[in-house]
Amino acid sequence: MQQDRQLFEIIGKERERQLKGIELIASENFVSEQVMQSMGSVLTNKYAEGYPGRRYYGGCEVVDLSEQLAIDRLKKLFGAEWVNVQPHSGAQANAAVFLACLKAGDAFMGLNLSHGGHLSHGSPVNFSGLMFRPIAYNVREDDQLVDYDQLESVARAERPRLIIAGASAYSREWDYARIRKVADEIGAIFMVDMAHPAGLIAAGLLENPLKHAHIVTSTTHKTLRGPRGGVILMGRDFENPWGITTPKGEVKMMSALLDSAVFPGMQGGPLKHVIAAKAVSFYEALQPEYNIYQAQVKKNAAVMAQAFIDKGYKVVSGGTDNHCILVDLRTKFADLTGKVAEKVLVEADITTNKNMVPFDSRSPFQTSGLRFGTPAITTRGAKEPLMSEIVEMIDSVLSNVEDSKIITSVREKVNATMKQYPLFAW
Ligand SMILES: Cc1ncc(COP(=O)(O)O)c(C=O)c1O
């Protein structure tokens, strides 16, 4: 067969873009060579609907082994009693939990999307908001921390069937114990979506939500540094609270409902190549050097947050406990939107994303904020001194958004700097 030159040229361009730029998107990372190799392996050829040992296709003996490896390693990594490694993405993992726990129209609570919550926690254009009844809790206006008092009073008044903690743009540790308490009081299921901080949690640098939540979901590709995908975990399996029974009349365990919600409820055949790559990334996360990496991610984020503050930027909530920094541009540049800031930074080969800040005066298409994260740049070996230099470069661009000479000179500096941080081994 002829080689598809056109497509491979495009891949080459993307490789080049990743190599020469500073990657600061909080939800991105660079996977290892062996994670990539597993994704590009023969496992992509195999259909394996079902679960290890109980498949709907023949010839699954080998892929059963790789899925079981992923299951065992993930359990060990987070101290889970039960996991499902098949969700194709974080949103799919969340959808499976909704399917297992809610009926159409049921109420659930999640963090206000414009205060850092995720689309799949109740956006009106997402399945969660289209099929169910989302109720938001907020962050406080004064310190931008989750307003647990409001969460509790709304939960008591509305009695949702599910409460979700976790966010796409929240830099602080969560009080999971407090949310579990109110969930127990009103008979709700408590789910934590740890997609963003999962790697820091795996390294023991943030509290493990499996100790408090009934169900935990995650992506595998952000701080965790695996392939793109999702997972569902439980610290302890439990009988479903609605009395749904098996044909034998026994109350179904939640694990059975979740397994059925993923397949056949939400998905068909699992991505065996991606599940294998998940297994590799969990292996990597169980090695001692992973904890050193995650500690550096956290240190780098703290230094970056402080460097922004020192330059006169407002960092939402005044800092960060994790890998993520949300900057409110309004205090320093009243007229600069997140949209324009993102675009000019890309011209300087610095990649970040526009983001709403809590109580934003602008729309989600313009925004007043930028979200930064340190997982990817830390994978390249960057340490604290580079964080201050990066903030210096960002400030230079944002202070001169119309000066193409300055933007070009920053880009040259970015490209020269990143040459010192090799990325791909081939
Ligand atoms: C908290 C949270 N949950 C879920 C997701 C969805 O993950 P995916 O893009 O893999 O569907 C994201 C993605 O950004 C997220 O931030």
Structural write-up:
The protein is α/β, with parallel strands linked by helices and 426 residues long. Helix content is 42%, strand content 13%. It has two domains: 33-285, Type I PLP-dependent aspartate aminotransferase-like (Major domain) (Aspartate Aminotransferase, domain 2, 3-Layer(aba) Sandwich); 292-419, Aspartate Aminotransferase, domain 1 (Alpha-Beta Complex), CATH 3.90.1150. A seven-stranded mixed beta sheet has the order 4-10-9-8-7-5-6, sandwiched between helices. A four-stranded antiparallel beta sheet has the order 11-12-15-14. The radius of gyration is 22 Å and the shape is globular. Pyridoxal-5'-phosphate is lined by residues 27, 89-91, 94, 118, 120, 166-168, 193, 195-196, 219, 230.
Task: Tell me the layout of helices and strands.
Elements: H1 5-20, E1 22-23, H2 33-39, E2 50-51, E3 54-55, H3 61-78, E4 82-84, H4 90-101, E5 107-111, H5 127-131, E6 133-137, H6 148-158, E7 162-165, H7 176-186, E8 189-193, H8 198-202, E9 215-219, E10 230-234, H9 254-266, H10 272-285, H11 288-310, E11 314-315, E12 324-328, H12 338-347, E13 350-351, E14 353-355, E15 369-373, H13 375-379, H14 384-398, H15 404-419
Parallel strand pairs: 1-13, 5-6, 5-7, 7-8, 8-9
Antiparallel strand pairs: 2-3, 4-10, 9-10, 11-12, 12-15, 14-15
